[in-house]
Specification:
Length: about 500
């Protein structure tokens, strides 16, 4: 075949149809036949297979490439749709969004300027408007789709930094330059917030020391009194708080900070409030739990990750702002891209709002989802996983093999295997128990039977379920708990401690 025969155009439409059909069939077979979320393959086992591929020698046909792909990827992929994938904030995806993904890839629109996307620009703007309405923002709101929560948080804090610098100059007799202001800037955020806040501070020229953690309560939510103390301390130290970052769904605990109280404090102090709702944004579509986000409408900016709790393929995120004028801080003009005369003509160029230039039409996936399923259906799916987490907490709380950290607000459970009869660990070497929990997670992953996550709480290793699959049943969770207890108990037995028994066995 000639090189041109591989270009997607009017003459190769049939080739395109056949190739995608073959690919869809192959993936459908893998989805239908996945008996567990992972094969347990190790890097050492798989790397030689990948390294052996000679990239200088093409195979020639899509079917041959798919056969090879089976060996280097599909066979050993981690399948998030499996009900015993319980690890990270990776969701199974809805079919209308996958259809949108296929359209996006084929047309390859770039959402930076009108002359590269046309209707795509208007669809994205409509979805930003829809999301802003769900948040409770007014008509002055706006936003932009991004690659994920980290980028959304970065852009929000960039806007907060520029707005703060503007206000400092406005209220100063000397009108200091931005480099003179930056060392004084501080970001206050929950000690349980996402690491991207600190990373953003570094990227924004502030340094990690500019991020001040605020203490949390026993439910791992930011304490308003602790925030008030930090605001007062910064003021007395001559520091300027450029933003308070609240979290609506922490990565480890799914905790939702008390947004109304935090909004009151920020309003009184004249400080930008950003709400990182990358995880908890699914509540925007919930008919039963929307009240958990009360106060989010008072934020200056909000991060939403549709590819978490809206069941969208990666990537699909957005940053929303209450006042669209603040987006001017990321507007730069290039004669070849968005010249001034295009603004004068009223052309809607999305690059004027984004820190990216070339950008995928990821909004189409959400558009297709809403047009096929509707927002209520998305909310029902998210409510199901939150319900399941509540039931799983009861299961864990009643099981003397485990201690659970907090009652979940969303769909995350953080817990720790402990020897039966020793729930406080008083008679057990805590380091040994740490190792047993680490071993259980690794052994489970190596078996491929289930995948769970891990984290550190108060200096001790814990395990974590992140439930985002409505197909995950309580029976699945109970089975995984038994597997964990088996691995951990055998580890302790091998290291001089008797294995734990379930309550029923005891």
């Amino acid at each position: 075949m000639s090189s041109r025969s591989h270009l997607l155009n009017d003459r190769t439409a049939e080739h395109y149809r056949r190739s995608l059909h073959d690919g869809v069939e192959r993936v459908a077979e893998k989805l239908a036949g996945a008996g567990q979320p992972f094969t347990g393959v190790t890097p050492a086992e798989l790397a030689p297979t990948v390294s052996a591929v000679d990239l200088e020698q093409p195979l020639g046909t899509a079917r041959e490439a798919l056969d090879e792909l089976e060996r280097v990827y599909l066979r050993d992929a981690v399948y998030f749709h499996h009900p015993r994938y319980l690890a990270h904030l990776n969701c199974p995806v809805v079919i209308p969004a996958v259809l949108g993904e296929a359209v996006i890839s084929a047309l390859n629109s770039s959402l930076d300027t009108w002359d590269q996307s046309a209707g795509g620009t208007l669809i994205e703007r409509r979805l930003v408007e829809w999301t802003a309405q769900r948040i409770g923002f007014g008509r002055a709101a706006d936003g932009i789709f991004t690659s994920g929560g980290s980028q959304s948080n970065l852009q929000a804090l960039l806007l907060a930094r520029e707005e703060t610098c503007r206000l400092v100059r406005k209220n100063s007799e000397t009108s200091p330059s931005t480099p003179q202001i930056l060392p004084r800037l501080r970001i206050l955020t929950s000690e349980c917030s996402h690491f991207s806040i600190e990373k953003s501070a570094v990227l924004l020229g502030l340094g990690p020391e500019a991020v001040i953690p605020v203490a949390c309560d026993e439910r791992r939510r930011m304490r308003p009194d602790a925030l008030a103390e930090q605001l007062a301390r910064c003021e007395s130290a001559g520091q300027t708080v450029m933003a308070v970052v609240a979290t609506a769904g922490t990565t480890d605990f799914g905790s939702i900070d008390p947004l109304p109280d935090l909004a009151d404090l920020c309003a009184a102090a004249g400080v930008w409030l950003h709400v990182d709702a990358a995880y908890g944004c699914g509540l925007l579509t919930s008919r039963r739990r929307r009240a958990l986000l009360t106060g989010i409408e008072r934020a200056d900016s909000v991060t939403v990750d549709y590819h978490k709790s809206f069941f969208q393929p990666v990537s699909s995120s957005a940053v929303l702002v209450r006042d669209k004028d603040t987006l001017r801080h990321v507007t730069y003009h290039a004669d070849y891209l968005n010249p001034t005369h295009s603004v004068e003509k009223g052309l809607p160029n999305q690059v004027d709002k984004s820190i990216q230039t070339t950008r995928r039409f990821d909004a189409l996936k959400l558009w297709m989802t809403l047009r096929v399923m509707g927002a209520d259906a998305v909310g029902e799916l998210f409510d199901e996983v939150v319900d399941r987490a509540a039931d799983a907490w009861k299961l864990l709380d009643a099981d003397d093999r485990f201690e659970v950290v907090v009652t979940p607000e969303l769909s995350t459970l953080v817990f720790r295997y402990v020897p039966a009869g020793d729930p406080d660990g008083a008679g057990t070497d805590q380091t040994l128990t740490d190792q047993a929990n680490l071993h259980a997670r690794d052994a489970l992953f190596a078996s491929g039977e289930a995948i769970v996550a891990g984290t550190v709480v108060d200096g001790r290793h814990h395990l974590k379920f992140t439930l985002l699959n409505p197909e995950t049943s309580l029976a699945d969770i109970a089975t995984v708990l038994d597997l964990i207890a088996g691995h951990a108990g055998r580890y302790l037995d091998a290291h001089g401690h008797a294995p734990a028994l379930s309550a029923a066995q005891a």
